[in-house]
Amino acid sequence: MYLVGLDFYTYTTREILKASNEQRGKMLKGQAALSCGLYLLLFPIAAVLLQQVQWPVGLALWFIPILVLEHFNQEVSRLLVALSEQLTASIILFVRQGSWALVIVALMAYDKESRNLHYVMASWAVAGVLAASLGLFKLGRLQLGGWRSAVDWRWVKKGIAISMAFLLATLALRGFQTIDRYWLESLAGIEVVASYVLFLGVAGSLMTLLDAGFISYAYPNFIKLYHQQKYGELNQSVRKLVLQTLFISAAFAIVSWLLLPYLLTWIAKPVYVKHISLYPWLLLAMVVNAFSMAPHFALYAQGKDKPIIYSHVAALIAFVASVMALQTSWPLLAVPIALNVSFAVVLAIKAFAYFTAPTANLPTAQSQIS
């Protein structure tokens, strides 16, 4: 979806919150036109690649509509979050990612003949159609104007330039969060990777919790406040998000550490207990990552994209350098420590860029009056 989306939402989200309701449909039409063009360009390539890897034709035929539905639903969810329609976005997320899994599990328990991949793909596709229908219904209720206007290709070209830079940053960030598992396997073995993935999944729940409960509500407000030149209120909102992150991270760390032994007892895999020392390192990495979100979205709201992009590329370099430096002395902890170093680099660069910006220390309007 990176190739057909180009992270164009990073441009659209910021622009759409600055625009009037009468102009927003025109912007979304431009984004849709770009995606359609990319699909037409990339689908033949994807078809050839799937043929080369000898994918079954039946699964390949499911792949295309599911990809389109997932992409559409993801973009609609992002748009709804930006427009402060978080509840609807959450419902769509559950329909497209959670509902069909529950349905297919129940179906497989009842009917043995349904225990095959085609039923799974069909359930996924049906859920995607339902989620898309909900998204379209909500978009219709928002009454966005400008749909009949011609596509502004200059606006689209400007967006491509900005979103491609963000795509590079995203790939850099995803890069070290993908190679970490392979590198750890080469250093410590597949059993350690299994523990690493489990503990990273538990620790990563912190980011899911913060995103759903706080970040998704905060960053659209950041953009609006900056656009309205309410810099003091923006800084106040950033500080509020930092405090919320501190409180939730502390609570999550305590609760997860207390409950983790019970989870491992329930799983009943001695290898996880053996490597429980990985969890504090991974939890710390997620906490550091969580604290980088406040300056990240503050910079994003102000259009200060370069520090964001530089920090993600620097994080990839820091990860590789850290693992190479530690892999001989601490093969088990080299990757978790490197993960902390990478997220610390991201936090340091973004925090420095935010706090050195001219708007960082401006008071609120209320403070100026008093």
UniProtKB/TrEMBL annotation:
Q: Which UniProt keywords apply?
A: Cell membrane, Membrane, Transmembrane, Transmembrane helix
Q: Which residues cross the membrane?
A: 32-49, 116-137, 158-176, 196-220, 241-267, 279-301, 308-326, 332-353
Q: What is its main location?
A: membrane
Q: Name one GO cellular component term.
A: plasma membrane
| Superkingdom of the organism of origin | Bacteria
Is DNA damage one of the keywords UniProt gives this record?
Answer: no
InterPro entries registered for this protein in UniProt: Poly_Biosynth_Transport (IPR050833)
**Record keyword Membrane present:** yes
- Compartments in which it is found: Cell membrane
Give the membrane topology: Multi-pass membrane protein
- Give the matching PANTHER family: O-ANTIGEN TRANSPORTER-RELATED, PST FAMILY PREDICTED COLANIC ACID TRANSPORTER
Its name, as the record gives it, is: Polysaccharide biosynthesis protein
Native source species: Crenobacter luteus
